[in-house]
Amino acid sequence: MAGDDTDTVLDFRGWDKENKLEVLYNKSLVEEKKLEILINNTDQFFLIVIAIIIFFMQCGFAFLEAGSVRSKNTVNILIKNMLDAFIGGVSYWAIGWGLAYGEGGNVFCGGSQFFNFQLPYHLYAKWFFQFVFAATAATIVSGAIAERCQFFAYFAYSIIITGWVYPPVSHWAWDGAGWLAQTGYYYDFAGSGVVHLMGGSCAVVGCYFMGPRRGRFSKKGKPIDMPGHSVPLAGLGGFILIFGFLAFNGGSQAQIAHEGDGDVVALAIVNTILGASTGGLAVLFINKFMFKQPWSFLMCLNGALAGMVSLCGGCNLYEPWAALIVGALGGVGFIIVHFGMLRLKLDDPLDAVAVHGAGGIVGILAVPWFMYAGLNPGERGILWDGHASHPWLVLGYNIAGAICITLWSAFWSALLFGSLYFLKMLRVSTDDEFKGMDLIKHGESAYPAAAWVEYQYSKGAKDQNNTDSVPANMSSNGLGATVTLSGIKEDKSGESFNDPFQMVPTTGMLFRGMSSTFLSVTASQEGASGGGVEAHQEGHQNTAYEGEEKKDRSEK
Fold this sequence. Notes:
Layout: H1 17-55, H2 57-68, H3 74-101, H4 124-144, H5 151-174, H6 179-183, H7 192-210, H8 231-250, H9 261-290, H10 297-311, H11 320-343, H12 352-370, H13 382-385, H14 390-422, H15 430-435, H16 437-442, E1 481-483, E2 489-491, H17 500-503, H18 505-528, H19 533-541, H20 543-555
Antiparallel strand pairs: 1-2
Helix pairs in contact: 1-4, 1-8, 2-3, 2-4, 2-8, 3-4, 3-5, 4-5, 4-7, 5-7, 5-14, 7-12, 7-14, 8-9, 8-10, 9-10, 9-11, 10-11, 10-12, 11-12, 12-14, 18-19
């Protein structure tokens, strides 16, 4: 190419030996510098592309959570997922990065580069990569306390988790100055503990202080199924998360231009999808054959996600057969925590604690047993080198790291959610919860009625054969809770959480009062006009209303 000095042919005729060596040396320095620039740019480009793919997981979380909540809270959960990225970006820019990777820090946290002050531009790729990890950790909590969290409380915990709780944890494990990283024995490649166990710990504390959704458990504490409004939306979100997890784990190598990088990235990605496979299958079969439940798509999906979470810790160190085992163990952990949460009456609409908490613990504990790929004899897992001290030290420090991460996350979560709880700023009112937050808080409906005004969907619409043209699956056929003038609730759907007397007690009392007054007046008029004593007594007795009232008193 014209003008390209790399194609220039040097003519050494008439040159002495010293001049020749000097020119060749200088040219080699130039080529070495160009190679260094190319390597650095390649690594930065790799980080940026991988981070963008991981950032797309926010879309997956949004769809998964939107499909898993009821339609009246769809807009609310969507805006929270979007603000996780926006609030997280500002928080991580302000203090998060400085606490995690700022220079001049100590074993606990970083000490500079807050607000990106004096942050070298060549570190911006790493900044963006680490930010999307922080945003992922915050999003875990939003799903666990969905459908009943006040908007101000959401702002508070999103800022605190992204800006304060998560950054020191990532500093401990992934910054060279962190106390776990300095030991050389803490292995957590993609964040089973740093990201997922941390998020799961915050989520379970949030569930405790938030309390279950109204109608989620019966008076005797038995769980009542409260399905989300769209399995297809949840499925779409789940598939996006599976796609993103491949970048999440594979990209944690954080470079691609050095020898062996491609091997590690490929191994991590293969192991991650294998972990998803056995995690999903384990949950599917256990749910079907042990608990005698149907072939549940959502349970299988959550099992796959738990399997991928459990692979985060050591996906770069496992042989594929080991990844299959670890993924299955992640699925088993999900099942245990899922039913344990229900037993403790902790309501998690997304099973975030079971997916990320259980998967994170399995991921941390599995590494010292199954690590093998690329390690020298004596440094491999307990299954091979159990006679050596190295794998046992890894086990010890991984347990210590998991305990410290859990305690740190639970402490700040308890302080945050506990304060909001006592200030009565944590949970929405019963009326708002029953009506849904989309219209009340945001003035927008995910499925506005005006957009569905079409003749073929209208009640009583007939086709050319004069038969009902509304498909059975699109017609309510009168299902749902209604209140008659006599004060009797007719609930044909069977869900207690659609009971207006239970969900909105003030409205229920109003209906009862109005019906009692109305029937009393009409009965009096009928009695005065010769309607008979029986009609008068029936109107005043209102036995249906009294029966409901006695029932409520007995339940209380």
